Amino acid sequence: MDTIFALASAQGKAGVAVIRVSGPQAHQAALQLSGSSLPRQGTTLRVLKDQFGNPLDEALVLLFSGPHSFTGENTVEFQVHGSIAVISAVLQSLSEIDGLRIAEPGEFTRRALENGKLDLAQVEGLADLIDAETESQRKQAQTLLSGGLGVLAERWRRDLIRAASLIEVTIDFADEDVPVDVTPEVSGLLSGIQADLQKEAEGVGIAERIRHGFEVAIVGAPNVGKSTLLNMLAGREAAITSEYAGTTRDVIEVRMDLAGLPVTLLDTAGLRDTDDHVENIGISLARKRAESADLRVFLVEKGEDLTIEMRDGDIRLLPKADVRENSEIAVSGKTGQGVDYLISHITRVLRDRSAGAGVASHARHRETLNSANERLKNAQTILLQGPEYYDIATEEMRSAIRSLEMLVGRVGVEDLLDEIFSSFCLGK
Amino acid sequence: MKHSIFDVIVVGGGHAGTEAAHAAARMGVKTALLTLHRRDIGVMSCNPAIGGLGKGHLVREIDALDGVMGRVADKAGIQFRLLNRRKGPAVQGPRAQADRAIYRTEMLKLTEAQENLQIVEGEAVDFLMSDNCINGVVLSDGAEIHGRKIILTSGTFLRGVIHIGDISRPGGRMGDRPSVKLAERMDDFEVPFGRLKTGTPPRLDGRTIDWSGLDLQPGDDDPTLFSFLNNRISAPQVSCGITHTNERTHDIIQKNLSRSAMYGGHIDGVGPRYCPSIEDKVVRFSDKSSHQIFLEPEGATDHTIYPNGISTSLPEDVQEDYVHSIFGLENAVILQPGYAIEYDYVDPRSLSLDLSLRGVEGLYLAGQINGTTGYEEAAAQGMVAGLNAAASCLDKEPVNFSRSNSYIGVMIDDLTTNGVTEPYRMFTSRAEFRLSLRADNADQRLTPISISLGCCSQERKEKFLSKMDQLGSTKYALESSKYTPKQLLSAGIKVSQDGNRRTGMDVLAFPDVTFETLAPLITGLDQTKPEIRRQVERDALYATYIERQKREIDAMKRDEGHVIPVDFDFSSISGLSNELKTKLCVTKPHDLAQAARIDGMTPAGLALILARLRRDTSQKKREA
């Protein structure tokens, strides 16, 4: 096994940079660079030197002994000054040591996975955490990273094993004093798991939104101040504004953090009938994006017809509050009037929706959950056909267990028998 | 004394021993069956029954490989029942009460008639060794028998101890001495031993049982036999009786628990959870006020009754008391008290897939010595050891069974991968591919193996090939005819009118559709034999699931293709936990698929092993 190293912190100038080394030779490499012996565990301050004894930088050296490290292997972290020159000098010195090589992208995490320090879902969680920009993204990633999905899958698997064992007992111990009609309990267990699976699978959509951002589209007639409102919300001149109707033709996107939720605001072309070919392209694009957005903010006059359907959670406001007398439900990008109200509305709606997100957060999770659910649906139908088809029903359940195992570990038939034996008196 | 020379010597004439000896002899090598007494061949020491769920599957598989157990059990059967008759064919298991005397007589007859097979009476006390290689056995009278391969099937005889209440004495079976010397010799091999126990109930005199008020359980009207070669029974048929323990029985047992060998602390061995003693049942399931007892006749003309369900290690006087508290047994005379027996077993993880013991050249182990219980489990291992010992003598490839082709494969894999913590018994739920591993298709799965090994009788071969011919052409006819929903509806078959054309096999999988419903639609099928009709129906029923499992089986076969060399050094793989390393070193998995099944194995651990295997292979290539 090679020993690998790489810069673990971001590229570029910074106060501190972290260089990580992992593998059988990691400790040896640390010793070579720091020139004197190091404690097997903990933090030491050392001057790192190249192979000719020239000092590179003063560094904090952290030693971790496998398996108690991120990768599960012997690991060293050098905290050096975040200078591009220092970093490249240290990396250069490491590369000159025999048996050490620069890590491939993601290789530290892969080793952590291979060494059983993380399961597959946790790896996904780790990647999400590194990408997280907002509070809700951080929380979602950390639930996954802390093994939340594994805990759930383990619970479903346990219930499924229990359900299967109830059927198996009527199969393998047909000649003995065992409960005859186990279908009500089995069916109850399966229904419970199915409901959970469905809820988690449905939550993946929301979880993906949390990961990639919710889209909020501002729509309305031309020249009602949509772009001005966007600029106000963004805190910068993201969109060009003018007194001419039809200034915005493309869709302008602004990413922002709304009370911890990642939101992409969309400024769209004003909706009207026009002969201008280019403007028409912009309008149809606006409609499309507005339709697919998570939320729509309508800037419209009282009684004005909406050409895009208003859906649950959408908000309708009067435009240009600054030039109105009576402006209780109006908003102005110019003066900021009504903006707080708008923000709190968007936040409330999106936060409510976020509550629907479970631990499952990736398309892979959804597919696995759905396929397990499909098997259980079959199992339920087959169970109703009676004991004649119990063997097929348990095959469907076994198949569901296998699907769930793709999220975590693996099922042993001994688990099944353990469940059988702890629950029933068997043996004649 | 003089010294014959054999290829294979089988030590022990029980179910593992007889099957092993027959298998080796059928393979064409010169075989000796060494037993204490000729009369002990095929003796049933425990309950007088063969087959059951999972076990019946094993018997069918043994028969498909042209073994003897099924044929003998058919002759000796005095009450045949197909268990789970009202459940799917995959989980139906043939079972029969067997007449002990007929079983022994028939087994001896077949054994004496088998070509290449010689019965030798005597007690093996030691092995003949040269270096680390076994090449014979020494008998108690000093005689030496030379052989190239030895199959040891010593059952419960290794350091066996019999317990009745607080009385314990050495014994391999009631009335027989244990094999202590052989066990000591095995110690020299540094074989990892463990201790197990099993029990038997008191045997009753059927003439003193009041049968008048008891429920009787007759056999099936249409008996299902074990052997693919047989279609009729020969012994007279009897019924079993059913009675129950009651609260008084339980009181007597509760009061005397301290006098039970097990509860009095005289036994260290672990007993099977699925065959608990009556003491165990009363203690562990104290909320139940009654347990079922089957009164099984030991023979059509034998008065002995085996009360299945009340095995015990209580003292004789307590046995008398509790037996007499049971309805119908008030005046029953105990012919032989129940007893528990404790014995040594070898950790089966030290065996290879061919059941040879690693580290000792030429020694194979089969049966209870490997930690199993049951005649069928023993016989199946005997088959594996017998075929492989012979194959090895003939310089042929090992005969390995897989989880995907047989219950035999499931058992061998379970034993050699994860060892045992209690006597191992077969269940259908142990087989993840049980929809394809059925009792009804054991011949389709295994007889071709037996034919290609050259150890299949001409009679079986001809019968099998003709059956496969008929099955093949019938299935072809069904698969090549397609019907619209409209056509099917006109034949009285309800299908959704989705316009999809379905093959005859597809339609046969529908509930309520039988071969007879379909036959009028297809020309030439009206002559099909009933046995073929039923077989096609069963195949059709599971076809979709078997197709789905095929992907899983293919994945497993891929992993089985990654054979791990015998000298592979698991301890040098960095990143594997010490616990896993230890388990891997004990089990020494044959391939990656087996490694995957080691308890606690992680996908990550497998990736590491695979990576090392690949590295070693590419290194070898470079060196070559």
From TrEMBL, chain A:
Q: Which cofactor does it need?
A: K(+)
EC annotation from Swiss-Prot or TrEMBL: 3.6.-.-
Q: How is the cofactor bound?
A: Binds 1 potassium ion per subunit.
Please provide the record's keywords in A-Z order: Cytoplasm, GTP-binding, Hydrolase, Magnesium, Metal-binding, Nucleotide-binding, Potassium, tRNA processing
Source organism's superkingdom? Answer: Bacteria
* Residues engaged in binding Mg(2+): S227, T248
Indicate yes or no for the key word Transport: no
Location of this chain's protein in the cell: Cytoplasm
Residue numbers binding (6S)-5-formyl-5,6,7,8-tetrahydrofolate: R20, E77, K117, K428
Indicate the segments forming the TrmE-type G domain, all copies: 213-351
The record's annotation in Gene3D superfamilies points to:
P-loop containing nucleotide triphosphate hydrolases, Probable tRNA modification gtpase trme, domain 1, tRNA modification GTPase MnmE domain 2
Per UniProt, where does GTP bind? 223-228, 242-248, 267-270
Q: What role does it play?
A: Exhibits a very high intrinsic GTPase hydrolysis rate. Involved in the addition of a carboxymethylaminomethyl (cmnm) group at the wobble position (U34) of certain tRNAs, forming tRNA-cmnm(5)s(2)U34.
Quaternary structure annotation from Swiss-Prot or TrEMBL = Homodimer. Heterotetramer of two MnmE and two MnmG subunits.
Family to which the UniProt record says this protein belongs: Belongs to the TRAFAC class TrmE-Era-EngA-EngB-Septin-like GTPase superfamily. TrmE GTPase family.
Write down the NCBIfam families for this protein, in alphabetical order. Answer: mnmE_trmE_thdF, PRK05291.1-3, small_GTP
- Can you name this protein? tRNA modification GTPase MnmE
Native species: Parasedimentitalea maritima
TrEMBL record, chain B:
Which cofactor(s) are needed, names only?
FAD
Annotated NAD(+) binding sites: 271-285
Q: Where is the tRNA uridine 5-carboxymethylaminomethyl modification enzyme C-terminal subdomain domain?
A: 540-611
Q: Has the keyword Lipid metabolism been applied to this entry?
A: no
Gene3D superfamilies linked: FAD/NAD(P)-binding domain (3.50.50.60), GidA associated domain, C-terminal subdomain (1.10.150.570), tRNA uridine 5-carboxymethylaminomethyl modification enzyme MnmG/GidA (1.10.10.1800)
- Keywords assigned: Cytoplasm, FAD, Flavoprotein, NAD, tRNA processing
Q: What is its main location?
A: cytoplasm
**SUPFAM superfamilies associated with the record:** FAD/NAD(P)-binding domain
The residues the record assigns to binding FAD are: G12, G13, G14, H15, A16, G17
Q: Is Lipid metabolism included in the keywords of this UniProt record?
A: no
The cellular location(s) given in this protein's UniProt record come to:
Cytoplasm
Q: Which NCBIfam families match?
A: mnmG_gidA
Biological function: NAD-binding protein involved in the addition of a carboxymethylaminomethyl (cmnm) group at the wobble position (U34) of certain tRNAs, forming tRNA-cmnm(5)s(2)U34.
Assembly and binders? Homodimer. Heterotetramer of two MnmE and two MnmG subunits.
The record's similarity note reads: Belongs to the MnmG family.
**Protein name, UniProt field:** tRNA uridine 5-carboxymethylaminomethyl modification enzyme MnmG
Q: What is the gene name?
A: mnmG
